[in-house]
């Protein structure tokens, strides 16, 4: 019998329950997938807490990698035995098996292990669109990245270095600063004891940066705005500390005709061709070893409560995955 995490009400980590689940056969356009690794993302906590609405009861998780076990009618791009990964599909990744629409799947090259795929499909595709779609960055540019030692952060800093982009990374501790620097972050700011905007101005000789990438939200919004150069862009792609405050349009004008955007990964992988292009570049870098994906936290699926507590406590570094071999 397949097993998985379900939750029946929004709330803290304790609302998640480890249960036996009925999977069934795939319908038209679907496949039955056996998970070999499942990704743990901060977005998962948004669904669990109710910040992102979910029709309850619901499964948990939006990222996984595994092997296709059966295909439904009309599925032509995938076959039994195919190695696949996915992100952004309906909730339900925290499971040993699931039925899922084939349109969500991405074929996984043999050069990339299942746990690596689960650790980087969402984070890597997020980095891909942040660096390759959001702003016309060029070699020699300098940007500010919050949470530089996180899962997205460590992929971002390595990829930015390949593109010749200098990254100023904000982190919460000296230990995380060391990790960020080891992955290509040129400058680090420990925000618990340093003023981020002041340090950014010092590093850039007063100019500020053309782009700030902010996945933290409420607590970092003002420092992000204050770090931007004239006509700079603030990219708010996460809300780890809460929603950003209401945008004050006059403040944007007064601080240099600034721009703010709140992108979502779903809108950059909705088109199959664009998703294939973003994934192809990501897989090429990872498969060739130009970008490494570090899995620093591993959990069993039945330990999802502890995993969410660790994630929300900010103790995680790099990527986290659920190890299906440890599930019972």
TrEMBL record:
All residue ranges annotated as the Enoyl reductase (ER) domain in the record? 11-322
A Pfam family matched by this chain, by name?
A: ADH_N
> What Gene Ontology terms describe where this protein resides (cellular component)?
cytosol
- List keywords of the entry alphabetically: NADP, Oxidoreductase
Keyword Oxidoreductase, does the record have it?
Answer: yes
Q: Which domain of life is it from?
A: Bacteria
Mind listing the GO molecular function terms for this protein?
A: mRNA 3'-UTR AU-rich region binding; NADPH binding; quinone reductase (NADPH) activity; zinc ion binding
Q: What SUPFAM superfamilies does its record include?
A: GroES-like, NAD(P)-binding Rossmann-fold domains
Q: What name is this protein filed under?
A: Quinone oxidoreductase
